[in-house]
Every structure is written in C-alpha cells, then in structure tokens.
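Module 6 notes. Inverse folding takes a fixed backbone as the condition and produces residue identities as the prediction. Think of it as a translation problem where the source language is geometry and the target language is the twenty amino acids. Below is one complete input and output pair. Work through it position by position during the lab.
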C-alpha cells in the first residue's frame, strides 16, 4: 500500500485526495487536493465552476496528532467571485470557514472543553487559551441546534453571574428538553427583549408558560406587545423562599450591627458564626450549628421571629399542597409578616401579595425553575473550572457548548466519508 493511500484512509477527509506526505522533525505534512470542480463560497451557499484565480500560497490546517507528531493538512486552494461577499477563498469540506484547524480537531477540542479546564486542555492538544476560545465559538456557531427555538412552549428565564462585579448573563431554558436555548449578556428588560425579537411574534405567542423570579424586569419584557402576552407567568417558589432568606439575612445583619455597639466586643464575634445556622435548612445543620440555633431560640427576639417566618414560608412549598391550600397559607404568612414589625419581612409580604397570582400559577401548573436552577449550578461549576473569563461572550460560548442543544460527535463516531 502506498503511503498516500494509507494516509487517505487514516485521515478520512471527505472530498479530498492525498497527493503527498512529508515527514519532518516533529510534524507530518499531508498534501491534499479537492476533488470537486465546483468552488463554494465559505460564507453562503453560492457555488460556481468559474475560478477567479489561484491562491499564491498553500493553505494549511492542524489535524489530530499522529502519536507525538503534529499532523498538518495543506492544500492549494482557488478563489471565486461571490455575488454577495466578493472575492473569497473556496470552502473546504473538512474545516469550518475561517479556521486553521480541521473540523475533527475542533470537535474534539469542543468536547474536551465540556469536561476539563482550559489549562489541562491546552496542554493535552497543544494549543493556547485564545485558540481554545475561538474554537468553542466556531463549534457553537455551527453545531447548536438551529431549530432550538421552534418548539418552545414552556420556558424558564433567569440570570446567572459569570464574574464578580455585577456581571450577569440572562439564560432561557426549555423545560421540556432541560437545555439552555438562548443567552445574552445583561439581566434587564432590554436583554430579554432581544430574545423575543429573535423568537418572533408567532413563536412568542406559542409559549404557554414562562417561569421566572419575582423581579419586575423579565415580566415587563414578557408582557410587551408581540412578546409572550398569552403565556402564564409563573413565579418560581424557589425564588419566593430565597427572598425570605434574604430578608432573614437583613435582620441578622441589623442585629449584628447592634451587638457591635455594645461594650462587650466579643458578643458580635460570637454571633457572627450564627449565619449558616440560620440560613441552612434545619435538616442540613451540623451539631455545632444546631447547638447555635438552640441558643438563638432561647434568646428569642427579632432574629428568632425572622427565622420562624422564613421556615414557615419554606414549609408551604416543601409539602405536596394544592393551590387552594397554598393560597390560604400564603395569606396567613403575609398577615403574620405584616404584623411582625420586621421591615424586610413587611416588604416581602407586599411583594408576595403583588405576585400572588404568578406564585399560585406555578403551584397549579407544576411549572418552576427547578431544572433551570440545576442548570445554573452547573454554570457556576463551569465558571469555577475555567478560572474566569475575559468576556461575557466567552462565558456564554462555553455554557451553550456544555448545556445547550448540541450533539457532540467525536472523530471516531462520525460516519466514514464516502467517495462520490
């Protein structure tokens, strides 16, 4: 078997013929020739047999390593005159437009990026971080399911932090598939407006239920004309309980500040350790935290009343209660919180009364952001594993690559290229 025939079978690059193989010190260079007579524009579907000219230098692409050797594919390409994009170098069937790596190499890097950090990935495949980021963007651009927004009937929307300093991404998930289908930097009304603009009026009107937190920004966007005006807005019970936890934390901080003003300076220091005993669920407390909680109960006061209010609200959504039972208990909670005299809980009661219909809709339809919050936890793991991102788009690219509707096909899993 000739060496060119052997490498043709080893590389399995569709639409090519191997014309030569050169072994160098740390690299193998495989020269190929495109078999198609038609030239295809790399940016659109235009094709022609007319050649504009021939590139003066050969183009090359990094391929999967051959043992400890780097393997590079090179070809002499033609240029064509596209009526839309002007003079362009013809596209090749084995690499994405504008890339200096083959699709097999990029698909492998894309899959590795979902399972390991960039430092380990860069060492394994011998590329730098910037190259990894650009490869991720190209894989997401070409492999993300183009029909991901077509069958979107029950959706969830939430924001997640990708960097310290109020840097957020708004992510939209499909409750039925459990995947993110859209994302963009920001967390305001204008950010979600961009999603509905991309979705279009017809597909927006098809959304039957939309789960979100109790903030006003996302609901304001959903209720704009041409957006999801027919969808039932469901305020996720998780965020209701989270709001109570935040109210408890405000009360705890106020008590701590009062203790700092006392002559006994150690009182505030001893009290500071009570934070997790108050914020965690009672069943998840350690022995020391449970002991601290018992001491707080004996002490009583504003802090213990705030804790009991938080636990009362959590218990409403912890059980398997129907809509009528939840409505009755929510009304009782709001009355109790209103009378407590604790300003954070007075404010919470007003918010719950204002959002009551959406909270009960979530209970009635069984629609909540549980899946979306599960995805958000994985997003935080991705951010931690990446040791930070230089831009929101870089973070969004890796998130969609890992948690979006993408089917990763490794080189050994793809269908073998067949000769025409």
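Target side of the pair, the amino acids:
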């Amino acid at each position: 078997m000739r060496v060119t025939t052997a490498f043709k079978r080893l590389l399995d690059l569709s639409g090519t013929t191997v014309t030569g193989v050169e072994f160098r010190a740390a690299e193998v260079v495989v020269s190929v020739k495109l078999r198609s007579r038609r030239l295809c524009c790399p940016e659109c579907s235009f094709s022609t047999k007319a050649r504009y000219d021939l590139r003066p230098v050969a183009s090359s692409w990094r391929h999967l390593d051959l043992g400890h050797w780097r393997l590079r594919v090179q070809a002499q390409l033609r240029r064509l005159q596209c009526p839309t994009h002007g003079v362009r170098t013809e596209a090749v069937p084995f690499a994405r437009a504008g890339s200096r790596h083959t699709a097999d190499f990029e698909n492998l890097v894309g899959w590795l990026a979902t399972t390991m950090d960039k430092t380990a990935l860069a060492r394994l495949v011998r590329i730098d971080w910037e190259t990894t980021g650009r490869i991720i963007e190209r894989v997401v651009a070409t492999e993300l399911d183009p029909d991901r927004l077509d069958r979107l009937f029950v959706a969830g929307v939430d924001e997640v932090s990708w960097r310290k300093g109020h840097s957020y991404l708004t992510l939209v998930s499909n409750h039925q598939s459990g995947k993110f289908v859209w994302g963009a930097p920001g967390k305001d009304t204008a950010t979600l407006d961009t999603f509905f603009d991309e979705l279009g009026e017809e597909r927006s009107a098809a959304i039957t239920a939309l789960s979100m937190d109790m903030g006003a920004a996302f609901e304001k966007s959903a209720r704009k004309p041409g957006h999801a005006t027919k969808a039932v807005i469901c305020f996720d019970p998780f965020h209701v309980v989270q709001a109570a936890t935040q109210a408890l934390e405000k009360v705890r901080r106020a008590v701590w500040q009062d203790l700092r003003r006392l002559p006994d300076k150690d009182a505030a220091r001893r009290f500071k350790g009570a934070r997790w005993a108050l914020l965690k669920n009672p069943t998840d407390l350690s022995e020391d935290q449970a002991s601290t909680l018992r001491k707080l109960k004996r002490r009583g006061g504003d802090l213990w009343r705030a804790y009991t209010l938080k636990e009362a609200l959590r218990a409403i959504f912890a059980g398997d209660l129907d809509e009528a039972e939840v409505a009755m208990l929510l009304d009782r909670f709001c009355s109790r919180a209103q009378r407590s005299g604790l300003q954070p809980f007075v404010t919470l009661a007003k918010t719950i009364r204002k959002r009551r219909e959406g909270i009960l809709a979530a209970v009635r339809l069984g629609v909540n952001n549980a899946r979306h919050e599960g995805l958000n936890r994985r997003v935080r793991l991705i951010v931690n594993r990446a040791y930070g991102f230089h831009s929101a788009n870089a973070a969004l690219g890796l998130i969609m690559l890992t948690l979006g509707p993408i089917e990763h096909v490794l080189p050994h899993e793809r269908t073998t290229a067949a000769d025409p």
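Reference fact for the lab report: DSSP finds 17 helices and 14 strands in the chain.
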